[in-house]
Every structure is written in C-alpha cells, then in structure tokens.
Fold:
Amino acid sequence: MFSLAPPDVGTVLLAMTLAVIVVVLLSVVLALLFRRRYVAAVVRLQGRSQMAPNAEPAPAGSVAELRVKIEALADDADPGAGALILSLRRKLLTAQVVCDVVFWCGFVVLCLVGSLLATTLLHAIRNSDTSMIRMAFRLLSLGFDSDFSVVPVWVNVLFGVMWLVVPPVLVGATHTALPRWQIYLPIVLVVAVWIAETVHVSDFGAPIAVVVVIAAVGGAVLLLHDPRVRGAASPLILALSISLSAWTIVPVGIVLHFQGMESNDTAFSVSDALVLAVWFLLAAATAAGVLFLLARNYQRKRFSDIQLADVAFWALTAVAAFGASGTVATGVGSLRRLVALAAALAAWTVIVMLVRRRWRGRVLRSAPPPAGGLLILRVFKRAAQSEVFIDRLLSLWRFAGPVDFIAGPDLAGASIEPDEFFTFMRRRLADRFVRTTAEIDPAIDHLDRVRDPDGRFRVNELFCTQDTWREMVGRLMGQASVVLLDLREYSPSRAGTRYEIYHLMNAVSVERVIVLIGRREDAGAIEAELSGAWAAMSDRSPNRRALTPELQVCRLVSGSAAEVTRLFLRTYGVPVQPRARSHPRQN
Structure:
C-alpha cells in the first residue's frame, strides 16, 4: 500500500514526454528485431536449393565485336536530360524544407506564447516583477543560473536560430546523398562555439543538456530515415505516439476532476490496477488500429515511406514539445488553455500541410515524364555495402522512375516498406512470394509505376523462389528501360550473376545496360566475361544486328555522393527503346 498524490497537468504532460522517449527507444529496438527476423524469413522462403551450373549456349554465327568502354565515375559528366530530374528533386526538397521550417517555427512560437510567454508577460505587467521572464530565458537556455548573461549576443542568436532550423534541415538533408558527417558537422561547430562562450557564466548542466537534446534530435532523424528500420520504426512510432497522446487526455481529465476533492483513500487498490490494465489494452488496441490504417493508406498511395517517416518524426517532436510546454500549467484553467493550444497547433499543422500540397502540386505539374523502370541486378554481397550504395542511388532515381530488383539476403532488409512490415506482422509474408510461373505475369502487371504524392516513385522488391527467379529476371529485363548490372565482388563462381550476364546479352540491347565495377575488380577479367557472354548470344538476341555495339562499364571508386550522382546521370541518359509498359497499380 502506498500513497499517490494527485498530480497536476504539468506533471502528467511531463510524464507523457518521458513516455514518448521510451516509445522511440522501444520502437527502434522492435524495428531492429523485426528486420533481423524479416531477413531470415525471406531467406527461408526463397529456399536454399543448389543451382545447377550455367550452360553456356553455343555461338550461333559471327557477330560484331563488342567494345567494352570502361570509365571512371570521377570524370566530369554532362548532366544532359538528367538535369531536369535534379532540378525537380531540388525544387521538391526545397518546398519540403521551407514548409518544415515554417511549421516548426510556428509550432514553437505557439507553444511558448500559449503556455509560457503570455503568463510571464501578464505577471510582469501586473506585479512589476521580471523574475518569471528571466526564468523563461533560463528555460530556453537549458539551465542557466541567475548570473545568466546574453553577451555575446551573436552566439545566443546563432544558437536560438539553430534550434529553429536544425530539425527541419536535418530531415531534408537525410533525403539527399550527402554523407552523414557533412550533415552534422555544422551543428557540432555551432554547439561547440555556444558552449565555449557560455560555460564561464553557467555550470556544466546547460552544456550537458544541450548535448543530450541535440543528440536526441539528431538520433531521431537518423533512425527514422534509415532505410533499414524506416519501414518498421516509422509506423510503430506514429501508432504508439497517437495512442499514447489520445489516451493521455482521459487520465488528465480524471486527475483534474478529482484533484480538488478531499479523500482519505489514496491507496493503490485492485480496482486501480484493473483500470490501469484496461487503459493499456485500449492503448494497445488503438495502436494496432493505427498500424492497420497506415498500411491500408500506404497501399492506396496516400503517402510514401519517406512521408511516413517525416510525419513520424514531426509527430514525435510535436508531442514532446507540447508536453514540455505544458509542464508549466496547473489546474483546470490550465487544462482549458492547453486544449485551446492543441486546437491552435492542429489548425496551424493543417494550414502548413495544405500549403505544402499546393506547392508540391505546382512543381509536379512541370515534371518530366517518367523514365521507365530501372532494373538492378547485382552480386549478393555484404548487406552494409549494398544498403549504403542503394540508398544513395535511390535518393536520386526515385524522382526519375520506379526501381525493380529481386529480393536477396543482402537487400532484403534494405528498404522495408510499411505494408511489408504489416504483412510480416500478420505472418502473411509468404503470400508476397512468386512461387509458380503462372504468378509471374500478375506480379509484373501490378508493379507500381505511379508517383507518390511527394513526387517519388516506389521501389518494387520482388520475392521469388529458386524455381521462379530466373524467369522473373528475364521478364523484368524485357520491360526495363535501363539495366544496372552491379559486378562488384564478382567471380565466375557466382552462378546466379553469371546466368544473368549471359541472359542479359540475349534479352536486352547493350545500349540499355550499364555495368558497375569497384576499384578492386580486374577490368580485364570483367571484359573477358562480358565478351564471352556476347559471343555466345542466341539468334533471337536483339544485339545480333548491332553494327558497332558498345557496353558502358563504370568504375565506382569511393561511393561518394558525387560518384553516385554521376552514375545516376549515366543511367538516366541511356537511350530508351520502345517497349511494352506494365499496367500501373489500380488503387
């Protein structure tokens, strides 16, 4: 038996803010565990049957000699037609960052005015007492003592501006191909300057708090936009945050209703435990319902996976900021002010969303037509190496056209989509696999070829078994606009990739093929392998009548953002021959 003092609104909201932090940590841990089990399930369902050695077809007569052109991506490349896509991407990301900055600045101002500045200004006017204003400055400065000084002014102004622009800028930067150190270096420098200028007028509490808060914001951005956990963590965080926020309103009202009543019975009883259990069940049911709605709306193309990650981050940040601003409120009157503040924040959010939608719509109306599908064929390699490269390439290509690839152990967890996460949670992942040849045509016909509301195309990850992947690859080769053949870490013992090389010469014109090698690959051995496959092509190959065939081979040295951008320009500039397009997904 123990006593429970009835908490005020501020205490409850502070507890909600701390609970949100727990939600983030729990969601990330669950997402990582889910990803590990998800990859294991994909590998298990694909099967582990041994593949028979490739039977190289006999040459069917003389063909023109293949010229293999090996170039380094470090060389300067003319953007050409790719400049239109880069411009579209830049405009869309600019619209996103500007709207995020406006939203966050307005949100912070409303929180401060609604629950702190209005109260402090009224108190100062009525009582000629500025102590609360100084307390507000100390709160905004994260723990300064009574000797706080605003000198030098430029440092504090720079630090204050950083708080307003860093979250939206971080979110926008994660959608680019920039290395993470280039994103965080300016923030670290600003924080270091601020700490150096202020540590002599404050104890070490403020600098430590700054580092913790900045690290929390940066960590949340990285985790929510990491493609390895984005598809699972984003819906989990959003569902749990909505459920927590919705069901926190009920206990807040109950607490305030009984706060003024006198009662001698403050012990935690069995009925209290039952009420708490019901509360947890309702919160869990609400979270499951939100997850179902998210998966359903994602399948209907109401939003993209990137948009879902952005909404999850801003919902999490908004709930935490609202809870922190509400910690200064007490009493029933404070509850009314908080309800009014929540309504104002909701209205502000809707206004910014409408402006963003109209802005994005105007940009997309002048967008170039889709480039068609990019098919990625690759050597299965270390997951981390494949994921980093694919993430950077997709950050560019998804604005140009859809991307197709066969799921494998290296990329099975690289781009988990929300509907895949929900399918796995319902133990229906096997339904996504193409197990028979009769299922290949329907799977290809339902590939998503339509832009999402944010202007991006989706990544079509096809799940095949050992009995169907060869025919699936052949069908995808025939309908792709450009094929990227990643031969990094290739050796003749890679039977699956060797089969794709030989089949590629029989199914796709070499003008639509880009071969990628790394800095350690033997260019001579790769050229010999490609030439051997060229000489063994069948009579039905579209390359048989090529007069001066040339195959582009690009060497990726460091995998930097500049190299990946040049690779995108090379692939986007590949001539597109007439082909039968797949039907878009019916929504």
Remarks:
- The domain at 369-572 is CATH 3.40.50 (Rossmann fold).
- The chain has 17 helices and eight strands.
- The longest strand covers residues 550-556.
- The beta strands are 67-72, 374-378, 403-406, 433-434, 459-464, 482-486, 513-518, 550-556.
